[in-house]
Automatic annotation (TrEMBL):
<feature type="region of interest" description="Disordered">
    <location>
        <begin position="250"/>
        <end position="269"/>
    </location>
</feature>
<protein>
    <submittedName>
        <fullName>2-hydroxyacid dehydrogenase</fullName>
    </submittedName>
</protein>
<dbReference type="InterPro" id="IPR006140">
    <property type="entry name" value="D-isomer_DH_NAD-bd"/>
</dbReference>
<dbReference type="GO" id="GO:0005829">
    <property type="term" value="C:cytosol"/>
</dbReference>
<dbReference type="GO" id="GO:0051287">
    <property type="term" value="F:NAD binding"/>
</dbReference>
<dbReference type="InterPro" id="IPR036291">
    <property type="entry name" value="NAD(P)-bd_dom_sf"/>
</dbReference>
<feature type="domain" description="D-isomer specific 2-hydroxyacid dehydrogenase NAD-binding">
    <location>
        <begin position="108"/>
        <end position="279"/>
    </location>
</feature>
<dbReference type="Pfam" id="PF02826">
    <property type="entry name" value="2-Hacid_dh_C"/>
</dbReference>
<keyword id="KW-0560">Oxidoreductase</keyword>
<keyword id="KW-0520">NAD</keyword>
<dbReference type="GO" id="GO:0030267">
    <property type="term" value="F:glyoxylate reductase (NADPH) activity"/>
</dbReference>
<dbReference type="GO" id="GO:0016618">
    <property type="term" value="F:hydroxypyruvate reductase [NAD(P)H] activity"/>
</dbReference>
<dbReference type="InterPro" id="IPR050223">
    <property type="entry name" value="D-isomer_2-hydroxyacid_DH"/>
</dbReference>
Length: 312
């Protein structure tokens, strides 16, 4: 009897990935060219690192032996929906803490850039103007982190030198190394006291438009909203109203819709800083992703339970 060797598809970006566990057969796919092998034989799929879900999902209906998918991002809402359409169960794993350092770094960058008026200075530079102003400091500010997982806790560590008063919010009350985490039920009262609110929640039915008109209205005048989670965690129309009136500022790595269309009013609203969903994507991400994939494949080859499994 012929013994099948489990097949694994890796993204072409991992062309130099070495020290892979034995007992598995590997192929690499870039998401554009022809399939490197028969998708029906693939049991472990690491999709190409792209935000185009059509590319990621294209081979899935043909992967009839698929047992596990290892995403290279923390957010898996679109991929989860693709897998839910398959006729057989598939284990989905996210990237766990791998993107957290880079995403937390960008969150801090957005906070500092917005508070210190960097966008205003860049526009003045582009216009040939010299406009010294006094902007706010992060030192001693109250920061509310909504979503205290890998990204939220990494951001809190980066905030330590600034002496911020940090309040933590997650799905349920619990203790964390630096203090208590409050449940989301406390948000209406907590947002009113925060100078900076940072969103780092996964997108779920509970967090979709979590920051709606009512919750945004409870934020203090002049507060800064930072979103490194998912654009749909915020009601865009409500945020536009608050920022257009100048009552709130916003720094967004994610938007709804995304990509943000040319001419969208968020692009022109004073006090709004936007980056194009690049939070996790730094040079330091790749080694962490390679380590993650190597570790998960070792567990898969040994028949052990995978880590970072997404509840479905």
């Amino acid at each position: 009897m012929t013994v099948r060797t489990p097949q694994v598809w890796l993204p072409a970006q991992f062309a130099d990935l070495t020290d892979l566990p034995p007992g598995l057969e590997y192929a690499r796919w870039d998401g554009r060219s022809a399939y490197p092998s028969d998708p029906a034989e693939v049991e472990f799929y690491v999709p190409p690192l792209t935000k185009d879900i059509d590319v990621v999902g294209r081979p899935l209906p043909r992967m009839t032996r698929l047992r596990a998918v290892q995403a290279l991002s923390s957010g898996t809402d679109e991929l989860r929906a693709e897998l839910d359409r398959l006729p057989h169960p598939v284990t989905l794993c996210n990237a766990g803490a791998a993107p957290a350092p880079s995403t937390a770094e960008l969150a801090l960058t957005l906070i500092l850039a917005s508070l210190r008026g960097i966008p205003e200075s860049v526009r003045a530079q582009d216009g040939g103007a010299w406009r010294p102003e006094v902007f706010r400091s992060l030192y001693g500010r109250s920061v509310l982190i909504v979503g205290h997982g890998a990204v939220g806790s990494a951001l809190e560590e980066l905030l330590v030198p600034f002496g911020c008063a940090v309040t933590r919010v997650a799905g349920a009350d619990r203790d964390a190394p630096r203090g208590p985490v409050r449940s989301a039920a406390h948000l209406p009262g907590l947002v009113a006291d925060a100078d900076v609110v940072v969103l780092s929640v996964p997108l779920t039915p509970q967090t979709r438009r979590l920051f709606d008109a009512g919750l945004l209205a409870r934020m203090k005048d002049g507060a800064l909203l930072v979103n490194v989670a998912r654009g749909a965690a915020v009601d865009t129309d409500a945020l536009l109203k608050e920022t257009h009136e100048g009552r709130l500022r916003a720094a967004l790595d994610v938007t709804d819709p995304e990509p943000l269309p040319p001419g969208h009013p968020l692009r022109e609203t004073p006090g709004v800083l936007i980056t194009p969903h690049v939070g996790a994507f730094t040079s330091s991400l790749w080694p962490r992703l390679e380590q993650l994939v190597r570790h998960q494949l070792s567990r898969f080859a040994a028949g052990e339970e995978l880590e970072n499994v997404v509840p479905r």
